[in-house]
Amino acid sequence: MNTVIHKAATRGNANHGWLNSYHTFSYANYNNPERMNFGLLRVLNDDSVQGGMGFGTHPHDNMEIISIPLEGDLEHKDSMGNTTVIKQGDVQAMSAGTGVTHSEYNKNTHKEVKFLQIWIFPNKKNVTPKYDQISLKDIAKENEFYQILSPNKDDQGVWIHQDAWFHLGQFTKETSETYQIKKKGNGVYAFILEGEATINDQPLSKRDGMGIWNTNGIQIKANPQAMILLMEVPMNR
After folding, report:
1. Mean pLDDT value of segment 80-104
2. What are the backbone angles phi and psi of residue 10, rounded to the nearest 5°?
3. Fewest CB within a 10 Å sphere: which of 31, 95, 143, 145?
4. Rounded to 5 degrees, what are φ and ψ at 9?
5. What is the domain partition of the chain in residue ranges?
6. Does the annotation list 104 as a binding residue?
7. Would the annotation count 16 as a binding residue?
8. Strand residue runs (E) in 163-226
9. Is 102 assigned a ligand-binding role in the annotation?
10. pLDDT tens, position by position, 144-203
11. If you compute the radius of gyration of the chain from its CA atoms, what whole number of angstroms results?
12. Which fold would CATH assign to domain 11-135?
């Protein structure tokens, strides 16, 4: 088994006033050769956007892009004709494929929107762009992990063009769980959104990240009020 730990305070930070972004992996002006990615997980940005501000229309191609709002409302528009708002309790997935443009703005003028921006390399290039968005309201479970993303469009959660599975756990009491790897050769990157947890005997706090690979499963002990995102991804293209 191999592990890597990224403590919250070691992340790259870019504060543009309207945007305060923490980068777990190299992104934009944050360039750390030792933190380029975790397997096919390329970007994990922890973004806070001031009221009424946002990302103007810009292009992407051949990338799977996942947005998970943590607070507030994020307005999305894209060249596929989608105009929608994603908010806490939603998950958005966009396959950029042959090329797409989109914008993301804070819907509200009086409070921040906070969200995770996640990029994963696809297993197919130049696919037709697609958009997927769901509310977690009907699938959320308390004190256990539940699936929010997979490679299968008929499975629970959003789906992307990659052998990746995301699970989210919100814990109100101390809970111990075992997560089993879905596909041989994959690794898991755990990101502590709130509270504290212990993964394979490693204590972790809010916004700490830990990657684990060359194993069949991981042991997780969540403290009360912890919120944890598990991102299982292939380790090699």
Report:
1. 95
2. -95, 0
3. 31
4. -70, -15
5. 11-135, 145-234
6. yes
7. no
8. 165-170, 175-180, 186-194, 197-199, 202-204, 209-213, 217-222
9. yes
10. 999 999 999 999 999 999 999 999 999 999 999 999 999 999 999 999 999 999 999 999
11. 17
12. Jelly Rolls (2.60.120)
